[in-house]
């Protein structure tokens, strides 16, 4: 993971040679990338960095783990770990199957509801928009 974003001698962040060596611009905001595996950098994050050559102020890799048991102890529900990438965190949320599905759906609906009218009012050209997707299989 530490080879995905490199800090140059001048302190600026950039991509490694294999990804184009572009300098990364830091953009305001928080990005949440769903992380199905929970171990590596999500592919969508790699693509975001490569395509836009930009890194949000804070990145969160969200991994949802569903357990086949009726109850999860409070100290097992969430873990937050800082990664080797600056201002990037891995958040693992553990719950029962139905609870995790409701959490994902609730988060998706909240994001869609709270950003839809704002994006439409910005009058941004379609080619400059980044969409939020929803994957049914988690």
In short:
The protein is an alpha/beta fold.
Question: Strands, helices and their partners?
Answer:
Layout: E1 6-7, E2 13-14, E3 25-34, H1 43-52, E4 54-67, E5 78-82, E6 88-96, H2 97-122
Parallel strand pairs: 3-4, 4-6
Antiparallel strand pairs: 1-2, 5-6
Kindly name the structural category.
Answer: alpha/beta
- Determine the strand fraction and express it as a percent band: 25-35%
Mean pLDDT equals 76
Low-confidence stretches: none
Main β sheet profile: 4 strands, mixed
Give the C-alpha Rg: 17 Å
Order of helices and strands: EEEHEEEH
What is the number of E strands? 6
Give the end-to-end Cα distance, rounded to a whole number of Å. 22 Å
The strand line-up of the biggest sheet is: 3-4-6-5
Q: Could you estimate the helical fraction of the residues in percent? A: 25-40%
Number of helices: 2
Morphology? globular
Describe the structure.
The chain has 138 residues and is of the alpha/beta class. The chain has a domain at 6-96. Helices cover 26% and strands 30% of the residues. It contains two helices and six strands, in the order βββαβββα. The protein has helices spanning 43-52, 97-122; strands at residues 6-7, 13-14, 25-34, 54-67, 78-82, 88-96. The chain has a four-stranded mixed beta sheet. A two-stranded antiparallel ribbon has the order 1-2. Strand 5 (78-82) and strand 6 (88-96) form a beta hairpin. The two termini are 22 Å apart. The mean pLDDT is 76.
List keywords for this structure.
four-stranded mixed sheet, single chain, 6 strands, 26% helix, 138 residues, two-stranded antiparallel sheet, alpha/beta
